[in-house]
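Dear colleague,

Thank you for sharing your sequence with our group. We've completed the structure prediction you requested, and as agreed, I am returning the results in plain text so they can be pasted directly into your records. Please verify that the sequence below matches your submission; if there's any discrepancy, let me know and we will rerun it promptly.
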Amino acid sequence: NSMRRTTLWALAGLVLVVAFASGADATPIELVLVVDGSGSINSDEWILQQQGYYNAILAAVPADGTVAIAGVVFSSSVSTFLGLTPIMDGTDRTTVANAFLNANRGGLGSLTNISGAIEVAEGLFTDSATAAIIDVSTDGDYNVGVDPMWDGFTASTYIGTSQWAVDNSATVLNALGIGVTPDFAYGPGSFNMTAPDFASFRASLTDKISRETGVPEPGTMALLGIGLLGVGGVVVRRRRRS
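Please find the predicted structure tokens below.
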């Protein structure tokens, strides 16, 4: 009957709302995205990387105040180009995405100072974050600073490692290698990922940020929509037969 149909549609809508909200509950996520600006990345690859961040932020970050994002770029030295910014609505999200699209790596040198970037990123978190995530993307191994994967023995090479960051204010550090496989992810549930090349970077980064923010990927939402349409179709057919 009509009451049953209304109830089923209401339940289907609730499932959809819960899916959109999964991983984006009332507790804030602070996410520092660390961008590689080293000399091994040519100008075309740098543009692909910027566009990848822009699109991934728009696709995988909720605009409901549950996520705040900061941006750090590194080469020989490190620069913070975006302070921690809460994303309260779509306008905020677009503003943050544009900050990554327009990030400048000039004047930072040409080396790969991953540990320096980790040290700067760790200092951006506030005390109110329930999850404080450092997200590092790089196309190579470090060649200045210290090894971001601490050996656990040498105290002088501890500061700036992923373990040092988690021992301080970070909850987890995740890493995405572009054409390389990183080994310095650290913390509960941390993960390393690899994008085959810069052309594949956007898809890999979107997947990575989706995992960090809990936002379902577009393909997942499409499958859910198909499933809900199926539920609606069953209800309509049953109604016609009654």
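Summary note from our side: The longest helix spans residues 218-241.

Kind regards,
the structure core
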